Amino acid sequence: xxxxxxxxxxxxxxxxxxxxxxxxxxxxxxxxxxxxxxxxxxxxxxxxxxxxxxxxxxxxxxxxxxxxxxxxxxxxxxxxxxxxxxxx
Length: 88
Known about the structure:
- The protein has 88 residues and is mainly alpha-helical.
- It has helices at residues 10-17, 27-36, 41-48, 59-75, 79-87; strands spanning 25-26, 55-56.
- Helix 1 (10-17) runs antiparallel to helix 4 (59-75) and helix 2 (27-36) runs antiparallel to helix 3 (41-48).
């Protein structure tokens, strides 16, 4: 599972996705594009969390996988809650 300290907003992620001209694109290339476009560190870190060899075949694939990870992050309890829950 991909877990980040700061959370990227889905709208910011979609804004970057809109700037992708050519597919397929790798997570490494997305990280580079985010830096080039001046995206915030949370956007860069979001795509850095994917394996470097992760490849997105088209816009729909990239958007779906981005949304899936963002939703998992939103629904995941903080690590301290997980640890605390295990002690109860």
